[in-house]
Design a protein that fits this description.
Strand order of the largest sheet: 2-3-9-4-5
CATH superfamily of the largest domain: lpxc deacetylase, domain 2
Number of strands: 21
Structural class: alpha+beta
Helix content: 10-25%
Oligomer: single chain
CATH class of the largest domain: Alpha Beta
Number of domains: 2
Number of helices: 6
Order of helices and strands: EEEEEEEEHEHEEEEEEHEHEEHEEHE
Largest sheet: 5 strands, mixed
Distance between the termini: 6 Å
C-alpha cells in the first residue's frame, strides 16, 4: 500500500492567465492528508475542491466553481499533479486561472519537483473501474474500460493536422518525457472571435502552437510531430484527475474534449457498480 503524497514546501510563480490575459500569482503548498487538491481563490476567500461534480464549464478549458467563485483552465496543473502522483495540494491564486506558463504541463511539473514531494500519514486509494463506461456527443466519444493499470489512448482528427493516434501506459517517467511537454494549440482564424468573448487573451506564440491553413505557424516551438494528440492525452489526464483519486482503468478517446471527459466521470459515478475503491 502506497502513502498519500504532497509537496514538501511551498513554491510561487507569477504569469499570465490564458483566457483572462491578466497577471496571476500562484502558490503551491502542502495540503492536509486526505484533503485532496484544493484551488483557493485568495482574492475572493473561497476554496474550491478539484472535483468533477464542481465543473461548471468546459468550453476551451475545464472550469471548477463554488457559487460565483470560479477557477478556469485547471486541467494542465491537474495533469502535472497526477503525473507526479500528488494527492493533497493547496493551489492559491489571486486571479481567475493558473498562469498558463509554457502552455504545457511540464512547467507545472518543474514547480512541483522544485517543491519536493513528501509522504503523508494516510494510505493512497484508487478508483478501480469495473465496467465499461462510455459517453458520446456527436462524433466525439470517451470511454473508461476495466484494466489492471492506468493507460490512455486517443484518436485525433483536425483540419490541417489530419489524423493522429497515441497510446500511453502511465508512469511518472513516461508522463514527464512523452506527455507533459506537449503544448496547447489553437487556430489563428478563431483568435479574434475568442478575444471578443474575453477568451484566449493570454495566448501567444510562446505558449501556444498556432495553426493556419498551411500548418504550424511557430514550428520552432513544436516539440513532437504528434504534439497535438499528446496534448489531448494531457488534457484527459488532467480531467480524469478530477475523479478525486487515481484511476485504475483504460481511457480511450476519439475527438473528445473537456465536456466529454467530464460527462464520462459523471457517468462513471452515477452507478456505484461501475467502480470500487482499491489500494494504490
Amino acid at each position: 500500500m502506497s502513502p498519500r503524497r504532497t509537496v514538501a514546501h511551498a513554491v510561487t510563480v507569477t504569469g499570465t492567465a490564458l483566457h483572462a490575459g491578466v497577471p496571476v500569482t500562484m502558490s503551491l503548498s502542502p495540503g492536509p492528508s486526505g484533503s485532496g487538491i484544493i484551488f483557493r481563490r485568495a482574492d475572493l476567500g473561497v476554496d474550491i475542491p478539484a472535483r468533477y461534480d464542481l465543473v461548471s464549464e468546459t468550453r476551451l478549458g475545464t472550469v471548477i466553481g463554488q457559487g460565483s467563485a470560479k477557477v478556469g483552465v485547471v486541467e494542465h496543473l491537474m495533469a502535472a499533479a497526477a503525473g507526479v502522483e500528488i494527492d493533497d495540494l493547496v493551489v492559491s491564486l489571486d486571479g481567475p486561472e493558473p498562469p498558463i506558463l509554457d502552455g504545457d504541463a511540464l512547467s507545472y511539473l518543474a514547480l512541483l519537483e522544485s517543491a519536493g514531494v513528501t509522504e503523508q500519514d494516510r494510505p493512497r486509494t484508487a478508483i478501480k473501474v469495473l465496467k465499461h463506461v462510455a459517453v458520446e456527443s456527436g462524433d466525439a466519444r470517451a470511454s473508461l474500460l476495466p484494466d489492471d493499470a492506468l493507460s490512455y489512448s486517443y484518436e485525433l482528427s483536425f483540419p490541417v493536422i489530419g489524423e493522429q493516434y497515441y497510446a500511453f501506459a502511465f508512469s511518472r517517467a513516461g508522463f514527464k518525457a512523452e506527455i507533459a511537454p506537449a503544448r496547447t494549440f489553437g487556430f489563428l482564424n478563431e483568435l479574434e472571435a475568442l478575444n471578443k468573448m474575453d477568451l484566449a487573451k493570454g495566448a501567444s506564440l510562446a505558449n501556444t502552437l498556432a495553426l493556419d491553413d498551411h500548418g504550424v505557424v511557430n514550428r520552432e516551438r513544436q516539440r513532437f510531430a504528434d504534439e497535438f494528440v499528446r496534448h489531448k492525452i494531457l488534457d484527459a489526464i488532467g480531467d480524469m484527475a478530477l475523479a478525486g483519486a487515481p484511476l485504475i482503468a483504460r481511457f480511450e478517446g476519439r475527438k473528445s474534449g473537456h465536456g466529454t471527459n467530464n460527462a464520462l466521470l459523471r457517468a462513471l459515478f452515477a452507478d456505484p457498480s461501475n467502480y470500487e475503491y482499491a489500494e494504490s
